[in-house]
Amino acid sequence: DGGITQSPKYLFRKEGQNVTLSCEQNLNHDAMYWYRQDPGQGLRLIYYSQIVNDFQKGDIAEGYSVSREKKESFPLTVTSAQKNPTAFYLCASRTSGAGTDTQYFGPGTRLTVL
Amino acid sequence: GESVGLHLPTLSVQEGDNSIINCAYSNSASDYFIWYKQESGKGPQFIIDIRSNMDKRQGQRVTVLLNKTVKHLSLQIAATQPGDSAVYFCAENGGSNYKLTFGKGTLLTVNP
Fold first, then answer.
1. Which residues of A touch B93 (CB under 8 A)?
2. What is the largest CA-CA distance in chain B?
3. CB 3.0–4.6 Å: which of A65, B17, B29, B88 could bond B95 by disulfide?
4. What is the three-class DSSP state of A5?
């Protein structure tokens, strides 16, 4: 998992609650990403940030929010507006510059809605 | 839209055999491809990558082949071991360096 930590490993949420998933990296990477993984499906991009204080919506941003106040941190909030939040959430990071497409992943957070 | 897909969703091999996992891509702008290994309940782990100016790249027990003519990517694992059992999926960059598109994955099971 190479310097990317996600917490908690397991998270349970009641209907109507907002929850925040943590992602921290000590790789000095500029770009960070949040993906959602559902059984039998590929990774789907929620949000990404290429530099501090800037982020862009991915393919499935509805019901999620992020912030990028520090280079090392990219927390994801799953809001009550997300109708089907139960999934495995993965954070990734990438350094910047030419020829630096490789994304490295954290260990993931499994979110379950009760 | 453009997508990355896999020919085989599951692959079962005997320990010691060679494994080949395939991936088709459709975005002709993609010039960078990655293979990841994901064990159950864990995050994806980088295995090997290849750029479009290459046809083949080798790592430790793994080889990636790229056929740009038919937009096909494969991962070869030599002398497959039980620890190789995992989901393997490919990703392409669509010509950008900041976004990747991922395939759904192939489940590799290695029988002792």
1. 101
2. 41
3. B29
4. strand
As beta bridge partners, residue A112 has: A12
* Coil, strand or helix at B99: coil
Instruction: For residue B42, give how far its alpha carbon lies from the nearest alpha carbon of chain A (Å).
Output: 5
- The span from the CA of B46 to the CA of B1, in Å, is 26
Radius of gyration of chain A (CA): 13
| pLDDT tens-place string over residues A17-40 | 999 999 999 999 999 999 999 987
The amino acid at residue B39 is E
- E-strand stretches of A15-75: 19-25, 31-37, 44-51, 54-57, 64-66
For residue range B65-82, list pLDDT tens digits in order: 999 999 999 999 999 999
Q: Is A30 helix (H, G, I), strand (E, B) or coil?
A: coil
